[in-house]
Amino acid sequence: MLNAMMQAPVGDDVLGDDPTVKKLESVMAERFGTERALFCVSGTQANQIALMSHLSPGDEVICHPYAHIYNYEGGGIAANAHASVAFTGDDRGIMHPDGVLSCLKADDIHFPKSRVLAVENTSNKGGGTCYEWEEIEALRAVASSKGLNFHLDGARLYNAIVAKGHHESDYGAAFDSISICLSKGLGAPIGSILLGSEAFIQHAMRIRKRIGGGWRQAGYLAGAALYAIENNIERLEYDHVVAKDMATFLATLPFIEKVITPETNVLLFGLEEGVDQAKFIARLADKGIGISQMGPGKCRMVFHLNISETDLKEVKSVLAAL
């Protein structure tokens, strides 16, 4: 990947003449069957650009209460798009058509206008859970019938594609806009892709520039992203396998109260009553093991290409000795 970065031809992407950025955007648009793609700094930026493109002040986004766009993007829905939020979904981070329909408001000046239905796949706070394709189709039908823009926060979309055997082009056809992180399981250092129609991306480019997201010689980063797309997708399955293996191990430990069986590379578990979650995470950090928390009772491990078999054995050894 480093060699790919160093060898990447570059230009000024603000002027539209960075050849490696253009190649990355073309490759991703072709894979998903969309008209255009836009290279963005982060998943948050890509999501926020999409929401600003789809929404007007006073509109409403329908999403899951676990959604990254609501919980972890600095209040961007309010600050950037000046929109409100309605919530629906189950405890796995998955939304269902009946819940979406219940969020829709009457056409009344007292209420916001529902404009965007936003899906997160995989659901981070849900534990890396994936939508079945039939669930996506059902939500798409609701969005289409009710005039909602259908956005996909696909931060870990390739994990879902690998886990479920889905096709990129099906996602491109189902959604009006898609953001995909290249800096998570795929291993690029920086960057996300925003996908959509020609008109949508033209608007998105203007917003990206306005919020300070214009790249200069971004081809060095696009080179890393291209390498990730070409080399690191199939290996995601290994991350899923080791996540399941770690879940099985955690279930044998006396201080673990609950383990949510992982579908992909995110593993959530809860501690027995009386075990302080913050202190537990700090003790692991002292041993060089970084885990995080997604709220009370939800410790999180994420598995990725920088974790070796030796690392996994060390994690198990440390946990067994606590």
Description:
The structure is a single chain. α2 crosses α9 and α2 runs parallel beside α11. The mean pLDDT is 97. The chain folds into two domains: 230 residues, 3-Layer(aba) Sandwich (Aspartate Aminotransferase, domain 2); 86 residues, Aspartate Aminotransferase, domain 1 (Alpha-Beta Complex), CATH 3.90.1150. The strands form two sheets. It has a seven-stranded mixed beta sheet, sandwiched between helices. A four-stranded antiparallel beta sheet has the order 8-9-11-10, with helices on one face. It contains 14 helices and eleven strands. The longest helix has 15 residues. β10 and β11 form a beta hairpin. It has 322 residues and is α/β, with parallel strands linked by helices.
Care to give the gist of this entry?
It contains 14 helices and 11 strands.
How many DSSP helices? 14
Radius of gyration: 20 Å
CATH names the topology of the largest domain as: Aspartate Aminotransferase, domain 2
Main beta sheet strand tally, sense and closure:
7 strands, mixed
Secondary-structure element series: HHEHEHHEHEHEHHEEHHHEEHEEH
Number of separate strands: 11
Strand content: 15-25%
Strand order of the largest sheet: 1-7-6-5-4-2-3
Segments where pLDDT lies below 50 for 5+ residues? Answer: none
Descriptors:
43% helix; 4-stranded antiparallel β-sheet; 322 residues; 2 domains; 7-stranded mixed β-sheet; single chain; Aspartate Aminotransferase, domain 2
Topology:
Blueprint lengths: L1 H6 L11 H14 L3 E5 L2 H12 L4 E5 L4 H4 L4 H4 L4 E4 L9 H7 L9 E8 L12 H14 L2 E6 L2 H8 L3 H7 L2 E5 L10 E5 L1 H13 L8 H13 L4 H15 L5 E5 L5 E6 L5 H10 L5 E2 L5 E4 L6 H13 L1
Parallel strand pairs: 2-3, 2-4, 4-5, 5-6
Antiparallel strand pairs: 1-7, 6-7, 8-9, 9-11, 10-11
Helix pairs in contact: 2-9, 2-11, 3-10
